[in-house]
Amino acid sequence: MRPSGVLAGRVGAVAAIAAGTALIAAHGFVYGHWIMDDAAITFGYARNVADGYGPVLQPGLDPVEGYSNPVWMALLALGALVGLFDHGTIFGVPDYVLFPKALGIACCAGILTLFYFAAKVLTRRPRLATLLAGAALAAMPSFVIWIVSGLENPVYALFVTAVATVLVRAIAADRLLNWRTGVLAGVFAAGAALSRPDGAIYAGAFGIVALLFLRRDRIKQTFVACAISVGAFAVPFGAYLAYRWFTFHRLVPNTAVAKDQPLPALEDLGKPSLLVGYVGWAAALLVVGLVAATLARRTPTRAQLAGLLVPLGLAVAAFCVLQADWMGEYRFATPIWTLGALIAGVSLTVVWDASRLRARALLALGLVAAAALASVQFEASARSWRMAAKTPLCIVVERDARTMNGIADILGRDGLSAGVIDLGGQSMASDLRLIDLAGLGDAKMAEYLGDADLQGLRDYTFTEAKPSIITFIGTWDTTLGFTTDARFDQDYYLVYQSAPPWPGILLSYNRVGFWVRKELVADQAQLARLRTYTHDRVEPVLRENAVANRRDCGPVLRPGQTE
To answer: Rounded mean pLDDT of 350-360?
Structure first.
C-alpha cells in the first residue's frame, strides 16, 4: 500500500474511534452531573488511600473492603494524587463529577481502539465496523448510563474487550498457542476480575478457545499454553487475594458477604430474554441472522469470530448467574453490550460485502426497521433515567450527610456516630463515624445480612453499635425490622420523617427519617430545636429533588459540611 493510502487508513481509523467516542460522550452529557451514590463509596476509599490512611471508609476505622473494584479505586486514587480528583473544580465542573466521567469516556476510546484492531482481521471494512459498533453503544442507555455513573463499568468493559481482541488476533495470525497470547489473555482477565468479582469468569476464555481449536498433534502445546494463561491470571489475582486476606481477613469483598450471592437456579437461564426485550426482538434477530450468515461462510472470519463469541458467552453466563441488580438498566450487561456491538458491526460489514444488490437492499431495510424500533425503547429508557436517575450522590450528600452534620452540631458532642443506608455521599461529606446498616462498609453488619439474621443485626445495633443518629430511606426501616422493634422507640427520638407523597420522585429519594439517641438530647428545648432544624433543612432539599436530580452538590465534598 502506498504511504498516502496508509496515512488515509490511519486517519480513517482515528476518525471512526473519535466519532464513536464523541457519540458516547454526547449521550452521557444528557444525564448531567449525576453520579451514582454507590460509586462514591469507592471515591471515599480512593481519597483515604491517596491521603495515606489506607483502604478504609473513614480515617481511623478498621480496614473493611467496602468496594469490589480495586482497579477502578486505584485509578481514582491516582487521580487524587495528581490533583485531578477530589480537589475542586476543572473548567467549573466539580472534579468528583468530571474525573470519573472523563475516565469512563477515555475507557470507551480504548474500547473502540480495540474494536478497530479486532475488526482489522475480521472484515475488509474495519473502520466502518468500528464506527457502527461505537454508534450502537452510543445509542444504548444501558451502556452509556453506567459508563458515566462513576462506577467501574468502563474499565471492566475495557479489560473484557482486551481479552477478546487478543484472542481474535491470535487466531488470525495462527499464534493462539504462543506464550505471549496466553500471558496477555491471562493478565487482561485478571484485570477484569479485579474490576468486578464476576470478571474472574474470563480466566476461562483462553482455555475454551484453545480447546475449540485442539488438534491431536498439539495436545501438549495446548496444555502448556493453557497453563501459561492460567498462571498469568493467577499471579496478579492471587497477589490481590493474599493482600485481601492479610488486610481484610476475607477471601471475598465485604460487599459480597452482605449481598450473599445465591446459587444459580434453572429459571436464571431465561435472563438473556430480558436483554433481547431491551434492544427489541427485531434488532436481536437481525444480529443473530448476521452472525449466522457470517459463520456459514467458509472464510477465515468464521474461525476468528470464536475469539469474540467465547467471551460473549462467558459474559452472558455471568449475567445469568448474578442476582438481579437493584440499580436497574441492566448494569451487569455492560460487557454483553460491548462485545455484542462489535460482533454486530463486524458481521454487518462481512455480510454486506458478500451480498448482491437485492440482498443489500433487504439488509438495509431490515437495519432501518430494527434501529427504528430499538430507538423507541432507548429513548424511553433515557428519558425515564433523566427524570428519576437512581440514588444520585448529591441527593445523599444534601439530604443525609449535611443534615446529620448539622444535627451533630446542635447536639454539641464529640465522637458521634451515624447509622446510615446510603453510604457513598456520607463517606465523602460526613464527619460522623459511619455505621453502614446496609452492610457494604461494615463487616459485622455484612455478616448479619448475609445470614439473613435481622434480629442479630438489630441486637448489635441497639446494644453494641448504638449509633448516635440513624437515618432510613425508602422502606429500609421496615425491611430491617426496626419499626417493629420496641427498642427503637425506647432509645431514639424521631426528629423528622417526610410525609408522602412527593409526585414524580422515586419513593426511596424522599421517604426519609432521622432519629437521635435519647441520651444525647439535653432537654425538650434541644429536641424542639433539632426537629425545627431538620424540617427546615430537609424539606427544601426534597422539593429540589423533583426537578434537579442531575445536579452536583458544590465544588468540593469535605467531612463536616452543612452547606
So the answer is: 92
For residue 300, whether the previous peptide bond is cis, meaning omega lies within 30 degrees of 0, is no
Beta-carbon contacts of 8 under 8 Å, excluding residues fewer than 6 positions away, are: none
- Per-residue pLDDT at 474 exceeds 60: yes
User: For 362-387, b where at least 16 C-beta lie within 10 A, e where not — what string?
Assistant: ebeebbeebbeebeebbeebbeebbe
* Higher pLDDT among residues 245 and 550, named by residue: 245
Phi and psi at 260, nearest 5°, equal 50, 65
CA dist., res. 44 & res. 82, Å (int): 16
Residue 493 burial by Cβ neighbours in a 10 Å radius (0-12, 13-18, 19+): middle
Rg (C-alpha) for the chain, rounded Å, is: 26
Q: What is the pLDDT of residues 372-413, one digit of tens each?
A: 999 999 999 999 898 888 889 999 999 999 999 999 999 998
Which residues, in sequence order, are CB contacts of 250 under 8 Å at separation 6+? 65, 244, 257, 443
Spatial separation of the C-alpha atoms in residues 16 and 127, rounded to whole Å: 6
Confirm whether pTM is higher than 0.85. yes
283 near 193, Cβ under 8 Å?
no
The crossing angle, in degrees rounded to 10, of helices 37-50 and 95-120 is 100
Query: How does strand 433-436 pair with strand 89-90?
Result: unpaired
Sheet harboring 417-420: ordered strands across?
Answer: 433-436, 417-420, 469-473, 512-517, 492-497
Please work out, in degrees rounded to the nearest 5, the angle formed at the alpha carbon of residue 312 by the alpha carbons of 316 and 240: 85
Read off the C-alpha cell for 378: 432507548
Cell for 486?
Answer: 420496641
φ/ψ bin of 422: left (φ > 0), alpha (ψ from -120 to 50), beta (otherwise): beta
Exposed, middle or buried, 26 (CB in 10 Å: 0-12/13-18/19+)?
A: exposed
Residue with cell 482497579: 71
Q: Of 225, 213, 20, nearest to 109 (Cα)?
A: 20
Q: Which residue has the cell 432537654?
A: 523
Per-residue 3-state assignment (H helix, E strand, C coil) for 53-93: CCCCCCCCCCCCCCCCCHHHHHHHHHHHHCCCCCCCEECCE
Q: Is 211 exposed, middle or buried (0-12, 13-18, 19+ CB in 10 A)?
A: exposed
Q: What is each CA distance from 460 to 345, 419, 453, 464, 466, in whole angstroms?
A: 54, 12, 11, 5, 8
Mean model confidence pLDDT for the chain: 93
Query: In Å, how far are 5, 8, 82, 180, 537 from 2, measured between CA atoms?
Result: 5, 10, 43, 31, 69
